[in-house]
UniProtKB/TrEMBL annotation:
The lineage of its organism: Bacteria, Bacillati, Bacillota, Tissierellia, Tissierellales. It comes from Citroniella saccharovorans. It comes from the Bacteria. SUPFAM superfamilies: FAD/NAD(P)-binding domain. This is FAD-dependent oxidoreductase. The chain crosses the membrane at residues 16-33. Keywords: Membrane, Transmembrane, Transmembrane helix. Residues 17-50 form the FAD dependent oxidoreductase domain. InterPro entries: FAD-binding_protein, FAD-dep_OxRdtase, FAD/NAD-bd_sf.
Length: 168
């Protein structure tokens, strides 16, 4: 795997970003933006992993489906309840940075050199919880169980997100 080291320095930027969805794309966007000093707000239609796990369990045990928080939707995104294979079939040098970040939050260091890196569902969930808590410490604001359904733009900038009764 090609290695490239990246450095993220906090800046004095006044920029703020809203991220819709806290799957892998949202998690890493929030992480690198926050590290660079950008004010981040995350809106996720599903629940935090701790609660999402209960909703998924209820689905398998009783067949009751939470439409917003289930195997596909919720903190961690679509693959959270999979076996946690870290395959992207990509040779992008940024891949190493992603894997390195996962090791910083508890993934085994072997993922940095294995051909078929794998973390497993249980570890993956703990990593995501740690990343969320770290982001909260950096000032990221989270809205779980909040489905974005409309946007207001002014002069090309997003100024408001509608999510049911909420205005964010
Ligand atoms: C069952 C399953 C198993 C998988 N196993 C693996 C695997 O082992 N290894 C692997 O590499 N890949 C696996 N994948 C693929 C992997 O999960 C996806 O490539 C990855 O999740 C895509 O990340 P994403 O952040 O782009 O999207 P998603 O993970 O889909 O995240 C999008 C997030 O946005 C939220 N959202 C959607 N709409 C709204 C809205 N309107 N408002 C607020 N929030 C919203 C969703 O709840 C979700 O959490 C698996 C996928 C599935 C479905």
């Amino acid at each position: 795997m090609k290695k490239k080291e990246y450095e993220f320095k906090p800046t004095n930027t006044k920029k703020s970003v809203v991220i819709i969805g806290f799957g892998p794309s949202g998690i890493f966007a929030a992480y690198y933006l926050s590290k660079s000093g950008v004010k981040v707000t995350v809106i996720e239609r599903g629940e935090k992993i701790e609660d999402r796990t209960q909703s998924v369990r209820k689905f398998f045990e009783k067949g009751s489906l939470n439409f917003n928080s289930n195997i596909s939707f919720g903190e961690g995104g679509a693959g959270t309840f999979s076996d946690g294979k870290l395959t992207s079939r990509s040779k992008d040098p940024r891949l190493y940075e992603v894997l390195k970040t996962l090791t910083e939050f508890g993934a085994p260091s072997e993922i940095l050199h294995k051909k078929m890196p794998h973390v497993g569902t249980d570890i993956l969930r703990e990593i995501i919880i740690k990343m969320r808590k770290h982001l909260e410490d950096l000032g990221t604001k989270f809205y779980f169980s909040t489905k974005a359904d409309d946007f207001v733009f002014k002069d090309g900038k997003l100024i408001k997100v509608f999510a049911g009764e909420k205005r964010i």
